[in-house]
């Protein structure tokens, strides 16, 4: 019977010799588990006697089904009645367990020796004549169980040799394909993708200069560093001498896969010292995707290998040209983001917010824009997604917050009075240990009263707020800073967080506002949001207003503040100054 080896994501314990590994595992099993003996004896007298003796060193088990699972017992003891009843099932269990020994002992009386036993030879391994010599019985049972345990140990050792890389202890290609097959099966049920990454690290030059042992040391070090870099997010295997395979979790996004590939490239940052030499790594990466590139596990791995053959540098290559185009755009955007942050290519634009009651501007939302040296602008939804995936969003958000407060201070000195500026923040921003201190420092630096700042969070961010972050938001709210829920109604709308979180404002999602005049559902949702806001004593901001009819309808519902192209598009600070003067 084929033994299925269980491997979890990045289940890895460092380089081990297979004999050491398998022997240690077998010894641990021997110590922690008694042998399981199935007693199929119909004679009540013999059954009672055998039970008394066996219980001292074995666990007795009963058949749990008409068939017998060979992995549920280590030995079967039968008498003639039990043998006649269970012969077929015992033979099936022994055949399924082959080549591992599964002993069966027959208890037989002298009178029964006259019966022909030829038809039972393929089932019976030993027989004992009753009345039973208890010492002889115990010794023979113990001997057969030791033989069984030795066979199990050898099977574990062989399974390890078949499924694991001898040097690194990582799964090899056989086990990799098994688990990829499982992932593909799960993904097909859930209609998800599975990304397979193959990493090539050239070691042939190491072999030539430092020999086989030098190569093994570098390969072992690479495996260790890969597992540390990737933590528990993928299954890592060593496919060949120079290639490692990764199975990403079913449903993993392209951005997440690229972020993981970026971590793999960190292998190139540090050399590996071997015999006084410093070996520099230059990983190449190929990626195949189920079901886009292939409909099965082997085919998907082949596609990743084919993509790898086209990889020439640090950029991962996808088998699919469409995905490759998206990946290249992501990687180039990420690279240019670093330059944009360092060379101050970002601009702060503002979109005005109008009081429905007075009709005058009461605030602005600060929005980041990225202007390339060529004068072109990168779409915000394109670069902000990349920034969020690569951990650069916090630097951008902090730049926006400080720039917005500095602009508010400049307007105040120029007598351009607005009640507040609204700035978007993310969970990653709030997670930062110094988030509260940073916000307080900026307000103090520009001598702005806390009510002049509003922090906007999406519903998803608020839903994921933990106790520590809730304390931070409460502290900022107690200072007088406003907290707004962006895109309300589109995510995890909950009365519970309206009650628990220090929210001051609900921003109605523009999708509902855009359809409010032609969709009764959208109108009902907006009306419900306004009603909730009034009950919880919260302000409301309607985003995305583009027509006079929309504005009038929202005003009639009691929405507090308007925002949208009907009043003013996002604009640079210089244009906003003129807009404010014209609309005051």
From TrEMBL:
InterPro entries: Cyclic-di-GMP_PDE-like (IPR050706), EAL_dom (IPR001633), EAL_sf (IPR035919), GGDEF_dom (IPR000160), Nucleotide_cyclase (IPR029787), Rev_trsase/Diguanyl_cyclase (IPR043128). It comes from the Bacteria. Residues 330-584 form the EAL domain. PROSITE patterns: EAL. One of its GO terms (molecular function) is cyclic-guanylate-specific phosphodiesterase activity. This is GGDEF domain-containing protein.
């Amino acid at each position: 019977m084929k033994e299925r080896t269980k491997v979890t994501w990045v289940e890895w314990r460092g380089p081990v010799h297979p004999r050491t590994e398998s022997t240690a595992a077998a010894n641990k099993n021997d110590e922690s588990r008694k042998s399981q003996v199935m007693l199929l004896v119909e004679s009540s007298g013999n059954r009672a006697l055998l039970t008394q003796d066996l219980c001292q060193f074995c666990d007795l088990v009963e058949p749990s089904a008409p068939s017998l699972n060979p992995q549920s017992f280590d030995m079967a003891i039968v008498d003639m009645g039990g043998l006649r009843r269970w012969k077929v099932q015992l033979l099936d269990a022994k055949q399924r367990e082959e080549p591992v020994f599964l002993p069966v002992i027959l208890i037989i009386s002298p009178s029964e020796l006259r019966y022909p036993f030829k038809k039972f030879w393929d089932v019976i391994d030993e027989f004992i004549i009753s009345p039973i010599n208890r010492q002889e019985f115990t010794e023979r049972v113990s001997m057969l169980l030791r033989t069984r345990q030795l066979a199990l140990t050898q099977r574990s050792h062989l399974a390890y040799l078949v499924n694991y890389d001898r040097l690194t202890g990582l799964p090899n290609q056989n086990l990799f394909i098994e688990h990829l097959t499982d992932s593909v099966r799960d993904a097909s049920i859930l209609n998800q993708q599975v990304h397979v990454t193959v990493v090539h690290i050239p070691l042939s030059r190491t072999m030539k200069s430092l020999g086989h042992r030098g190569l093994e040391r570098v390969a072992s070090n690479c495996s260790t560093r890969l597992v540390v870099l990737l933590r528990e997010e993928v299954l890592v295997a060593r496919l060949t001498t120079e290639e490692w395979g990764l199975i990403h979790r079913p449903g993993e996004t392209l951005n997440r896969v690229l972020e993981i590939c970026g971590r793999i490239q960190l292998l190139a940052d540090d050399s590996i010292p071997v015999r006084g030499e410093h070996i520099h790594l230059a990983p190449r990466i190929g990626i195949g995707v189920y079901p886009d590139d292939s409909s099965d596990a082997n085919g998907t791995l082949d596609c990743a290998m084919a993509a790898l053959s086209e990889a020439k540098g640090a950029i991962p290559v996808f088998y699919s040209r469409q995905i490759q185009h998206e990946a290249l755009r992501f990687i180039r955007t990420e690279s240019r983001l670093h330059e944009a942050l360092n060379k101050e290519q970002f601009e702060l634009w503002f979109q005005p917010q109008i009081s429905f009651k007075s009709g005058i501007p009461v605030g602005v939302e600060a929005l980041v824009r990225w202007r390339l040296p060529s004068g072109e602008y990168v779409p915000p939804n394109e670069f902000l997604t990349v920034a969020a995936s690569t951990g650069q969003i916090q630097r951008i958000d902090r730049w926006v917050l400080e720039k917005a407060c500095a602009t508010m201070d400049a307007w105040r000195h120029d007598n351009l009075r607005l009640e507040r500026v609204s700035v978007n923040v993310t969970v990653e921003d709030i997670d930062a240990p110094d988030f509260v201190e940073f916000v307080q420092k900026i307000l103090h630096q520009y001598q702005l009263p806390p009510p002049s700042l509003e922090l906007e969070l999406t519903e998803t961010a608020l839903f994921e707020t933990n106790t520590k972050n809730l304390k931070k938001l409460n502290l900022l709210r107690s200072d007088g800073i406003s907290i707004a829920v962006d895109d309300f109604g589109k995510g995890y709308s909950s009365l519970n967080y309206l009650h628990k979180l220090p929210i001051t404002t609900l921003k109605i999602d523009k999708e509902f506002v855009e359809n409010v005049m032609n969709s009764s559902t959208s109108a009902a949702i907006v009306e419900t949001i306004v009603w909730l806001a009034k009950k919880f004593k919260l302000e409301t901001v309607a985003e995305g207003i583009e027509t006079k009819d929309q504005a009038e309808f929202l005003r009639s519902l009691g929405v507090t503040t308007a925002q949208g192209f009907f009043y003013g598009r996002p604009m640079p600070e210089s244009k906003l100054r003129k807009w404010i003067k014209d609309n005051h």
